[in-house]
Write a structure and sequence with these properties.
This protein is an alpha+beta fold. It is 50% helix and 10% strand. Helix 6 (63-87) crosses helix 14 (286-301).
């Protein structure tokens, strides 16, 4: 990377002013970054942007992934139960996230995170500011010894480790679950499980609350499905009054949203509850949040024959 580029010089000056990172080490590290313009194209082809719900669901709700999740649950069930007691985040949701993100640690990314973040920070057409902040956090993590910033591998979007945390999430939400004095999201499953739950808890997870329920529309329904957003736009009572039908006893003042997904047999409707939107803080895609819920339920309930 060209350190004489004005944008790069400005970044290094900001980093030196804002964080306890050696300017010489920061320059040396950033000089070693290789620009990867192909990564921007990879981001545009992410499954959440490229396929409809039916195809997206098939990618993640496969028998091998569910079996791997069950095996992982048997191995780490005691830790997951402890995490659930502490945070209120059930094992099913943590299992769903880890299954979608990395197949329980098997697929954690093959791109050097330094190259990814340096490329996106200075060349992404819309989200450069976001990725510059992530690059700063990444370099701080390296200076603190949390990771080897010159070598660590991750996704084409800069997520890394068994839970695929981006650097800002690593700095803010990673937890030392095993008590060894380190927050290790690459080698310690206790740290990983605790950190995923801590992230969701910090973003408002409601203990004992649901995630999503199958719904349908009454004839003449005036309900409008939600297209985007990280919070429920309506209430259960308002959706009932608009003709949304579902089989659950929920208070009218419960925040909720209506989702419409294109399934294999046509449109599917879902009542999204507050915890659904907490999952979208991990990934903004509604399909992602719904398949995390369904995968986790399939693992812990054993029923994969129908949407959950």
């Amino acid at each position: 990377m060209d350190l004489d580029d004005p944008a790069v010089r400005g970044f290094l000056e900001e980093l030196a002013a804002e964080e306890q990172v050696s300017p010489a080490q920061a320059r040396e590290l950033l000089a070693s970054a290789e620009l990867r313009p192909d990564l921007i194209e990879l981001m545009s082809r992410a499954p959440e942007a490229a396929v409809e719900w039916a195809a997206y669901r098939r990618i993640f709700m496969d028998s091998r992934r569910i079996s791997a999740g069950k095996a992982f649950w048997r191995l780490h069930g005691e830790v997951l139960a402890g995490v659930a007691r502490e945070t209120g985040v059930p094992a099913s949701v943590v299992l769903g996230i880890l299954g979608v993100e990395t197949r329980y640690g098997r697929i954690t990314g093959r791109h050097r995170v330094l190259d990814v973040l340096a490329t996106l920070a200075f060349h992404h057409p819309r989200r450069g500011d976001f990725f510059r902040r992530e690059l700063k956090d990444f370099m701080v993590l390296g200076s603190e010894g949390a990771l080897d910033a010159a070598a660590v591998l991750g996704s084409y979007a800069g997520a890394m480790g068994r839970a695929q945390f981006i650097p800002s999430s690593y700095r803010r939400y990673a937890v030392d679950g095993d008590g060894d004095g380190r927050r290790d999201l690459f080698g310690s499953w206790r740290d990983v499980l605790s950190s995923v739950a801590a992230y969701l808890s910090a973003h408002g997870w409601q203990r004992g609350g649901g995630v999503a329920l199958p719904a349908s529309l009454a004839e003449g329904s005036t309900a409008k499905p939600q297209q985007r957003g990280l919070s429920p736009p309506a209430s259960v009572g308002a959706l009932r009054a608009a003709g949304v039908l579902f089989d659950a006893s929920l208070s009218d003042d419960t925040p909720a949203g209506l989702l419409r997904m294109l399934g294999p047999n046509g449109p599917e409707y879902w009542l999204a509850l507050p915890n659904f939107y907490v999952i979208t803080r991990y990934n903004r895609s509604y399909m992602y949040a719904l398949v995390v819920h369904q995968l986790g339920e399939a693992i812990t309930s054993g029923d994969t024959r129908r949407p959950l």
